[in-house]
Amino acid sequence: MIKYQPIDPLVSPRFSGIRTFMRLPNEETLEDVDFIVAGIPFDTGCTYGIGSRFGPQAIREVSGILKPYNPVLDVNVFDHCSGVDYGDFPTVPGFIEETYEMVEQALVPVYKKNIIPVCLGGDHSVTLAELRAAAQVHGPMAIVHFDAHSDTGDTYFGKLYNHGTFFRRAIEENLIDPESAIQVGLRGPLYDGRQFKFAQDAGVEILTNWDVRKMGIKATITRIREKIQEKPVFVTFDIDFLDAAYAPGTGTPEICGFTTFEAQQLVLDGLKGANFVGFDIVEVLPSGDSPGKITSFAAAGVAFDFISLIAFNKQQGN
Amino acid sequence: MIKYQPIDPLVSPRFSGIRTFMRLPNEETLEDVDFIVAGIPFDTGCTYGIGSRFGPQAIREVSGILKPYNPVLDVNVFDHCSGVDYGDFPTVPGFIEETYEMVEQALVPVYKKNIIPVCLGGDHSVTLAELRAAAQVHGPMAIVHFDAHSDTGDTYFGKLYNHGTFFRRAIEENLIDPESAIQVGLRGPLYDGRQFKFAQDAGVEILTNWDVRKMGIKATITRIREKIQEKPVFVTFDIDFLDAAYAPGTGTPEICGFTTFEAQQLVLDGLKGANFVGFDIVEVLPSGDSPGKITSFAAAGVAFDFISLIAFNKQQGN
Amino acid sequence: MIKYQPIDPLVSPRFSGIRTFMRLPNEETLEDVDFIVAGIPFDTGCTYGIGSRFGPQAIREVSGILKPYNPVLDVNVFDHCSGVDYGDFPTVPGFIEETYEMVEQALVPVYKKNIIPVCLGGDHSVTLAELRAAAQVHGPMAIVHFDAHSDTGDTYFGKLYNHGTFFRRAIEENLIDPESAIQVGLRGPLYDGRQFKFAQDAGVEILTNWDVRKMGIKATITRIREKIQEKPVFVTFDIDFLDAAYAPGTGTPEICGFTTFEAQQLVLDGLKGANFVGFDIVEVLPSGDSPGKITSFAAAGVAFDFISLIAFNKQQGN
Amino acid sequence: MIKYQPIDPLVSPRFSGIRTFMRLPNEETLEDVDFIVAGIPFDTGCTYGIGSRFGPQAIREVSGILKPYNPVLDVNVFDHCSGVDYGDFPTVPGFIEETYEMVEQALVPVYKKNIIPVCLGGDHSVTLAELRAAAQVHGPMAIVHFDAHSDTGDTYFGKLYNHGTFFRRAIEENLIDPESAIQVGLRGPLYDGRQFKFAQDAGVEILTNWDVRKMGIKATITRIREKIQEKPVFVTFDIDFLDAAYAPGTGTPEICGFTTFEAQQLVLDGLKGANFVGFDIVEVLPSGDSPGKITSFAAAGVAFDFISLIAFNKQQGN
Amino acid sequence: MIKYQPIDPLVSPRFSGIRTFMRLPNEETLEDVDFIVAGIPFDTGCTYGIGSRFGPQAIREVSGILKPYNPVLDVNVFDHCSGVDYGDFPTVPGFIEETYEMVEQALVPVYKKNIIPVCLGGDHSVTLAELRAAAQVHGPMAIVHFDAHSDTGDTYFGKLYNHGTFFRRAIEENLIDPESAIQVGLRGPLYDGRQFKFAQDAGVEILTNWDVRKMGIKATITRIREKIQEKPVFVTFDIDFLDAAYAPGTGTPEICGFTTFEAQQLVLDGLKGANFVGFDIVEVLPSGDSPGKITSFAAAGVAFDFISLIAFNKQQGN
Amino acid sequence: MIKYQPIDPLVSPRFSGIRTFMRLPNEETLEDVDFIVAGIPFDTGCTYGIGSRFGPQAIREVSGILKPYNPVLDVNVFDHCSGVDYGDFPTVPGFIEETYEMVEQALVPVYKKNIIPVCLGGDHSVTLAELRAAAQVHGPMAIVHFDAHSDTGDTYFGKLYNHGTFFRRAIEENLIDPESAIQVGLRGPLYDGRQFKFAQDAGVEILTNWDVRKMGIKATITRIREKIQEKPVFVTFDIDFLDAAYAPGTGTPEICGFTTFEAQQLVLDGLKGANFVGFDIVEVLPSGDSPGKITSFAAAGVAFDFISLIAFNKQQGN
């Protein structure tokens, strides 16, 4: 029996009621749940267009339109999974290290119970806190990182932590296994030609947009699957992986990116059956979104695909 | 002991968490509460700019910024009152009579327990359902109606119900006592010079914007108080009472209207100590609002003043 | 001699004058016309993002930029066709069945005179009224349905009519011939895996976005042509067939959709030479559109391609 | 018998149909009309925020909401007046002198038939063309000029004509009688302290915003009436007379301005019974307007008050 | 001879060229200047709507429209003053204490040379850094604080510094003289009735919006002048002093506020002739501004009035 | 030693400081520079959606995000090139021929010094002035013209110059060599089937969007290279070459266009190593852009690719 599932749209219209993700119950519980959706409304790590503290709210707002059956995976999420909207994790606006501690502490019990968190950022700095919590339970993980940017900066004005350094820190802190790590979609001008070197030297595979275009989506999928294999894997999706036309509402939009359909192929075909530890989707900036809120719709769709992957695994008995 | 009050902003930032009104607990309960805030996301009664079904959500979204102490009334709401965000009442989009029944049924128990509802529209047609429920308990009430429009149309394409007819229907159905009714702020071009006649003949007092400007806010307040006296009173506030510059996000914006400060004077000084039955604030249209969401901020402020009036009465031992 | 054609842009600039579709004369006439463009500003059938009552106006507003020669079909529309902007059909906001009757009555004489209507919605519920009128003259028709959603819901809160049920009603009412019906572009989460069953059991062909991507645009075109053959065919285009990036201004935007170029290929190559009865383009929601009004531009472009198809047939002597 | 009046809103909803001003018939006729509304979609005279070529369309778009009875003047416009939406006058984008000639030629017959034009700009340069036409019939007129700017610049990059010089040109060309001219609402920083000198030396009365605030609206009204007396008077209203909060959609918004109510008082009480020759309302910039389109609503309201003044005179037998 | 002044608008149009404040030369010099305009693009101190890091840019963008002569003070700024756009002070996004140090260091030499800085925020936390610098030179100053909020919070999540605590810190750090300090315009709900106590106990005068309304603008001006007298005075203007309708683009908009004209009266009449040390204008949030950018126009206008006050003093020989 | 390069982002954050293109020094110098970036804020040549006078500013505003290394060409721009933001060229708003002269005069010395200008429009009419200047030095050039429109109109209301005629004028004035000219991306309805004839008869190659789609990007690149060979080439990029979804902020958006990635392929692979004379990017209309400013980001990206091509040539010793 599935305990927590969305409100039936025939009981109240989709535009009705308090906005939780996908109209799931807002319960801060770890009992009888397979996954939780939780916000991390934090953007102090942002070095350019700021305001992703309002990202979780914006994604929830449009997510009421989501329905439970994923036709691509042929799975009805709530035939197999129970999930809640866990609310937002605690943060201290303006103070990144304190926030890291609070988010990490809040997430450790989730990982310990083998519940899969789907986190809604916030800027990309929050992923480091998630990884710290996950690594306490799972050790260094495989990671699939969809992004326009490598986020492997070293320091910025002498500071270690911001949304452009999380991936380097995660390697340095041994939270992820670089040999099982892949970054997909990187593009745009760089500081210099050595910007990817740190990660590549550590063993990370990097596929730029030109790489993906040249090899095609199918080969990219193969490359992702080869990298992560059966290892516990964390999936982090920066919304700017999508082209600026598909996700205008983000802090550092990049042109020459991907469509939502390409993203869906990579996420569903690239990750189906993998051994998931956690997911996040970050950098949604509502103040830059179009009036039709297409960035939030895209982020909600990605989050739904994440949840569908969890359900698919359950369905398959993984 | 006050059972239900907002989340402490020092526990989580104001931009954090699931959006309920003023960060109140989302509980569908009538125990231990003095007031409830409830949405009525319905706009089928709208004859022009539509979309106020998203009004309750938009008001909740910005209401997290509200703090508990009202300096004008010198009252800390949650020293005296317990309140919840009751969620949204059931509606059937596209079907007004069915919605009327559902809202009425949902509200009758609230009125029976002498809990004061603060409803968030929705278009102004919903007020009729609220009045029907209230009148079951209180009989024909006094009413204070802040609006740019008189809403005393008869039929529209042969139909009785829409957002421009509720006030006439309320008189016809004996839900309000016209002798204790006052409409404030009416303005703009009319169909003809007899448009106010129906209400005036019934005994309703009408103060247009020119009337209010001529007599001043103080005299207007006196007139309101004289009209309603100690009778059970329902207060309905159409956001287009405010000038279009102050509330651009509404279906039929009207120029030559009032400032938020004038509205606050009328609401707080005009209604302080009255014998309240219910409140609503209607016609917020988020798609027409400015990027800064000033219409939603204004509506949240009016709703807060309504709640403060409830608390003030409690404080005074009324 | 072509009687009705657009105002010459060298007589007045394209941004000048009363906005009719493509600067055609606004005449409510059925004499000397081959096609009419008519709005159906009705959105009471909408269950989520509402406001497509302003759709016809928004499409007309930008359509002044259209020029008469279609280079893809190598046809100058007004060398072969006379057309007018017929204005908007009567509607009753808030009342769907009455509106259905009024639209149907208004359209029957158009169909009787073998004039091809190009209707601008409004939400997708209006298509049922169009089909009812068309079927009075043509009997059950072939239909090509471009959409992200199947619109084959049964009832919603016990009601038969809204924008998510028109296709099912059309089958039930024998307005369309399911064996000659094809739905293209369906995507996004569903209520369950049986949602397409009703239509498919009746004989309708369904091509989801994944189907189209897999088979390619060319094979899709072949499939459309095989389905409709020489039968009288109605073409209905929900703007959300386009990806949310290409058509953000719609009530239920869906990601993972199609580009305008793909749509143009499907419309022009897929339908060239077919035996058209009527066209519509629906679900344009101006309040959700980007400041550049790209959704309205896209809709105007689709409508122009519809008109070009009419002219192409004339040119070919069909 | 009044020949031309708006479509009855009970025949079709206000959001329905081709957008003409106030739903008047779009007829290019000078028979059986008392006033015409005509657009002048020209903005080449603009020296800063450009785009008022779309102003007439934007004002028409929202004007459907206007009703025929003006409660302030107690007059039902179409009991006394017949009027049409005459469409837009011809213009040549990018070429101001050619446009001046075309507009002048188009307007002379209107003035000759003693029909009162209510023109919708366009930038303020178009007023010169209107005055040239009017002066052919009426000689040098009185003028009431509501504006934030004096528009008495001399040349700009050596050029005589733009939206900042029309008033000086009108004096120089003897189109207006400076002794019967008044400018109301001027404000904001100037090039130097002598900027008003040219007009004042010619006899023009200038009331800045500080002047109006000091003397009050009533005294301002008296001053206007004293100036214009019974002379033929032209009224030109630059929408930036209104404060930027009330009319954000304009090319050079100015703070510290007036409310729509103050404007209405000045227009209705200041001009009631005057001997009108022509009216215009200019500088509406839709691309700068708020999503709720409050600037267009304000402009439509001013235009309606102009029409009401015409009707009031008819009613009084003037 | 005035060395630095704006580019002549007859040399290049106002919409042309690199955007500096008022088209002043962008020079990082302290020679031959009477005032500097400098940005502090920092918003890490913000606890709600964030993004004022883009404030300085937004104010500069529209400031090209400003002209040199202030008609209210009858002063042509650049007849008396030389000024530059000094660019932006250094900041470290995400790190408030480091930023405080950098801003303070950058400002000390300015104060030492008796050059008056007009700073453009940034959130209100930056004012503390400005005061620290100023106090090094001038000791504890008088202060006039226009704001909707008292900014006298103590700690927030245990942290001393953010945009809601600067005023308390300034008192604690002895940067301002509370007996010569006045806060004007405070309004909106509070945490409790004792929120103003800290400042009032220290001797600060607080005038809420209701106070100002009751006593009138003139009496308010008197009160300001009495407070500051001849003492060195710092003026800080939070844009949310203005009503949300006049300044929608700010992080925590408050209704029931002031118009730009009221602000101008208070600034020009309230401060004329005072002994200025420094000025700032803070909390402009471009992402919340209306498309017409009225908040930026308002802020540019306030900054121009500040500069005019400096010039007025020069003119008067103060 | 490279003299002029961007401010180091570790010295001041990317959102900080006066906005020049890519944070280059704003110097009006032709010494020690390889390229200049210059704005031409002129839009009087625009026949529809106007406002590109604000284009240069909008592109500069977002260009601070650009970094110096182009990974596609493997070149670090400022290892090889020195460049400045030259500011904006002089223009006279409203007067096209005067502006042509001023821009031409300003550009001749640039071309004479073999400095490559990258101009930011402005509407497409400005390209004629650029070509006139370039041809003085280089004679008739090869040209690559990316655009949705052919811009080969003859006259418009009897006038020779506007944004739809520059290409024809350039042929007539012998500024470009038609045999070495190629137009890529043309699409949308035309006046008639002969609209491309003038250019094609002169020898220009035209590739419509359907042509490009049919032959593919690679073959298109080949065609471009064959056309221009080693000749001095001017590259002009109308932002509406991009699909309306990718560049909504433009005066005449066209659907069925290209993605930014396709554009990047054509620009970088199509032009790598060519013998560049000048570049421009035109028709950015900020008022039509999405809140996320994606059109400006796209334009900045194209401009960066232009600069990268210059640097690549230097690197290769061309």
From TrEMBL, chains A, B, C, D, E, F:
Keywords: Hydrolase, Manganese, Metal-binding
Cofactors: Mn(2+)
Domain of life: Bacteria
GO molecular function: agmatinase activity; metal ion binding
Entry keyword Lipid metabolism: no
Secretion signal, residue range per the UniProt entry: none
Co-factor binding comment: Binds 2 manganese ions per subunit.
Pfam families in the cross-refs: Arginase
Biological processes annotated in GO: putrescine biosynthetic process from arginine, via agmatine
Binding site for Mn(2+) 2: 124
Record-stated family: Belongs to the arginase family. Agmatinase subfamily.
Protein name according to UniProt: Agmatinase
